[in-house]
Amino acid sequence: MASRLPVAVLLSGRGSNFEALAAAAPTGGYEIRGVVSDRPAAAGLERARERGVAAHALPPGHYPDRAAHDAALAARIDALEPGLVVLAGYMRILSPPFVARYAGRLLNIHPSLLPKYPGLHTHRRVLEAGDPEHGATVHFVTDQLDGGPPIAQARVPVLAGDTVETLSARVQGAEHRLYPAVVGWFAAGRLAWRDGCAWLDGRVLQAPVQLEDTDESGGADRAS
Ligand code: NHR
Ligand code: GAR
Questions:
Q1: Domain limits of the chain?
Q2: Binding site membership of 89 for ligand 2 (Cβ less than 6 Å)
Q3: Which 3 state secondary structure label does DSSP give 65?
Q4: What is the value of pTM for the model shown?
Q5: At the top level of CATH, which class does the domain 5-213 belong to?
Q6: How confident is the model at residue 1 (pLDDT cuts 50, 70, 90)?
Q7: Ligand 2 within 6 A of CB of 138
């Protein structure tokens, strides 16, 4: 079998997306080489260690500025020799040299149907706007915050009586199906970033692929 794509994960929080990615790795053609966090207390670090994945914290306060922190982050990531770097709930904006270093092999999952609601507090903003649906988008990271070429989306309904908690839980369920699918495409060589666009199977993506829920338990998702 061809060798597995080495992946580095950056996270700041719970790490449920890390968990979903790690669970799907054996069938996805990739392998999570390490997890790096800006927050020593991130639960995702402990989840990684429980799975035997190397986990490191680099608190920004230990560095004079964002550039120095990002440089340390890059050194730590480079030591993992990843073919792909994924942001999985990483909550700090990355500086242009960091983004340039990993251009075309840096993905983010954002909790909204981009281009709607870039930035923070997306669930609250969706509820305040009264939108009938919400979801998550995986995109290539560029210097434009949440503005890099979108690759794929998963949609969920907004239900009567939803709160930030119930809605974010529904979106996260969708994220856990979406992110492993997209990382699997990249590992299979189907997904690329060229000329500022996302390409899937040799074609420019004019719009993000919509991941359909064929199976609430996961597993049986397919791209439309
Ligand atoms: N970096 C770049 N260059 N481009 C993107 O598209 C990025 C990125 C870093 C992270 C994730 C993103 C999201 O999916 C992401 C995308 C953090 C902030 C933010 O404002 C915004 C968007 C995202 C992540 N962070 C504050 C900061 O000053 C700190 C907020 C906090 O610590 O709570 O970095 O939503
Ligand atoms: C995810 O919902 C992800 O979309 C979001 O943080 C959550 C992380 O959950 N990302 C952002 O808000 C980026 N600003 P997790 O730690 O359980 O994977």
A1: 5-213
A2: yes
A3: coil
A4: 0.94
A5: alpha beta
A6: low
A7: no
